[in-house]
Request: fold
Amino acid sequence: MTTPAPPAAPAETETPEPPHDPLRAALPHAAEVSIAADGIPTVRVPLERLLEAIERVRGELGHTRFVDLTAVDRLQREERFELVYLFYSLDQRTWLRLKTRTDAEAPSLTGSVPGANWYERELYDLFGIRFSGHPDLCRIMLPDDWRGHPLRRTEPLGSEPVDFTVTRGVYGTG
Amino acid sequence: MAQAELQTPSTSALTTDVEPPRELLTINMGPQHPSTHGVLRLELQLDGEVVVHCRPVIGYLHTGIEKTFEAKTYVQGVVLTDRMDYLNPLGNNLAYALAVEKLVACEIPERATVLRVLLAELTRIASHLMFIGSMALDLGASSPFLYCWREREKILDFFERISGVRMMTSFIRPGGLMRDVDAEALATIGHFVDAMPGYIDSYEELLTGNPIFKERTEGIGVLSADDALALGVSGPTLRAAGLNFDLRKTNPYCGYEAYDFAVPTGTVGDCFDRYLVRVAETRESVKICRQALDRMPGGSVRTTDRKVMPPPKEELAKSMEAVIHHFKLWTEGIRPPAGEAYVGVESPRGELGFYVVSDGSGRPIRVHERAPSFANLQALPKITEGGAVADVVACIATLDPIMGEVDR
Reply:
């Protein structure tokens, strides 16, 4: 009895076609393209290419709806703040995350997305990131004379003095 | 009202015939104004009755919740989510739990998922009842508020019965639910769900055809779909502008694709449309609740992943492994692998998202809430400027902002 010959392994000869990646095609300057734990495609672009990348995300890639902007303070990195933009495509029904790194300043998105206004003010207030070109960059959550930016990881956790204890120093009467 | 009509002719004998230059009057509306739904301050510049400029000032309720998250374990963080949107506590629990579950990649039993849908929709009904009541109250009709409160009370009683707390339930947790819901409680809420359409009819009888109510809301505070999208507006406010966008349909979570419900949309995008959309949505939520109750499967409401949920009490006496899991969970908490997750759900106010970043330790390094009210409130200047100052109240009411999640 002859044993049937094992089927020829197809993977050896055919090199798999590199999957067409519309993300990489539209964003050639991307430093990093990945799929996060939540399944949302995540692209990191250099800061100087940010506005251009956002234009492409909202144009060619069709993710027109601005959803969210936030930051993560990665203290150990040289450019410590990671800006995280989130866009949504109403046609494809998918989110797209765009990231960039900065140490203090970033270009404002308010020119093309008015909805980013308060989000950038919030980051300015709580992280101390300045957005150049923002029409009204001032504190949004904290009092105007507040010192420091509480969401920075250098700020103490859980031991922020309450307003009453700092009143004397802050308002200059003491 | 046209600007010209509001100018008072200078008939006094003492005034000169030279018309003085019109001065803009700057007034503060809030932060304690009862119609600002919490502590919203508006800097209004008025030309007579007409709002020329409106600048919302927020932050009066800022308590640093996002910072506090960094000091808490993942399970402790649940109690903070209740306090963001305090009219949608279970919806916030749900969004946060889903985001953490994405990070740890754990499976949730079917019964927990169906109960989550039921609880989220009951919370939506309670939140919209609050909206209908408080909006009517803002516009001068005090009786709908009492009727809406009466029904909302039933829902809160149900929450109290199952979780022990009326508002800040923290009932939905990463890994499932705090505990199971007994059949008797489900039967009680079933009777309520069946009676609810009749109650909604009675609110509509009071408001929808009411000529005074219509006069205060029709054509007031119009927000087009394009403007709404540009300003980041979502939820009923966006749907009232005619755009059919509901995350329960477009990106279903918790098995929403298996439920039969419609997404009501408006046409004009004025205050009246925003009211109608929310009333219609309440009816759809009632339908979803009924379907969830009908299909309620049996079984556990907690994941079997012992790295996420502690083992049941009886196992502790028998299994050493269970004791270790229990000890590790209560000392270190859940330790998701390093990574990030964003989950967006449809809250009563729009796209509510939690963005959670883990570095592999027991505490998140960043939790950010994409609060729908925060984005929606940015549209307030757009819809109030050019209108009468009395209409500002209607505009705030129909944007339905919750300052707890605006300021966080």
Notes: The domain at 23-170 of chain A is CATH 3.30.460.80 (Beta Polymerase; domain 2). DSSP finds five helices and seven strands in chain A. The first strand of chain A starts at residue 32 and ends at 35. The radius of gyration of chain A is 23 Å.
